[in-house]
């Protein structure tokens, strides 16, 4: 019987060749027994990869970095970063490799990147490996974010390596294969700036412009235009996080992308009871990255990008600073506009309604949620029912009935559109207790709960019979929730 030849996979090495100073050629650790736990077949097809082949022996080896296509140059990327406000001059891919770039069905260049592929010179004493649970967490949450319409890195596959990883106990190891517009970060620019090599900084900026913000190339000041483009996409991104109750957990500058994609799903989670002070990360002891702080942190991170770009913005340092400060000032306006438009949609309010009225209604609704510890996601779905006339579902969520009734009367008088609300307010998010349930089962070899959770959160807006538990908040005995980075 003849065997079909393996497909030809062309992985570009544009980052490695154009920015060699930021790319350390490296190889993934050998995986003794790679087995696919979950494969994103639609994404594979979008990238021109055959899902059947990816499940084969050679395909599995590609997904853990042990099969390198001809012409590819796997590299560990160099970057710096402010971690919890403290500057680290040399971070880099300590447990990750950029295999190369693929063109998707629309001709867009996408990174194929591995996480958990082994120690690199950037590992800083860590083992460079990853356990099954954290890699599946990133798969679930990143694909849920994509389904919610939020720019994000995508998950192609999680492959068990057949190797044990030592954390508090021995855990089964895994590699995540993920896809992104790129892995350029604010921290990448910080690293280049710290070398005092202005030519490197300029080449990095030109690379970012060509890859993500080509309109900046024609501007009078292209590098200032690049900065303004990043400000715009980050303002939009963080507003979208806030609207769905997503808490990133590690908003370091090395996790702030130039593309405007969400990256790094370590200690992340979605709000249950609405509270701006919510922190899920076990390592965020000061609450720096609490849910309500995320817009301010994003602005702070963008200020660090501005500092890195100053030599390119203008030859005169004072002029460069003045221009950068003025451009950074657009963040709050853009964020405010994006949040207000999103909240208007979540409340089903008509176009043409005075912005002040819409914003006040949104603020008052969130104040009601906070005061009575109401579940964020459920509350908006219940409001959709109230717009159809079934008020009890929403009313029963509150203790302050007089406050709820007064707010509801003013809101209903504006004629909210329940169908429009259901198109933007998810019924299903990766509920924290369900994520933990799925990861624990998968770690023990049972992928059923993971598959059912993925089915719900990757089609989040249409309610379906039999999925009621995926729309329900955590049971009271679930307790306080903490997430961990997995290293």
Description:
This protein is α+β, with helices and mostly antiparallel strands and 487 residues long. Among the domains are: 14-180, no CATH class; 186-340, no CATH class. The protein has helices spanning 14-18, 41-46, 51-54, 57-63, 132-147, 186-194, 198-212, 222-244, 294-313, 317-328, 330-346, 355-372, 376-387, 392-395, 401-412, 418-424, 432-443, 448-457, 468-471, and strands spanning 23-25, 35-39, 75-77, 81-83, 86-88, 96-103, 109-115, 154-166, 170-180, 246-247, 269-270. The strands form four sheets. The chain has a five-stranded antiparallel β-sheet. Strands 1-3 form a two-stranded antiparallel sheet. The longest helix has 23 residues, at 222-244. Residues 1-5 have low confidence and may be disordered.
Give a short synopsis of this structure:
With 487 residues, the protein is of the alpha+beta class.
Key terms:
487 residues, alpha+beta, five-stranded antiparallel sheet, two-stranded antiparallel sheet, 19 helices, globular
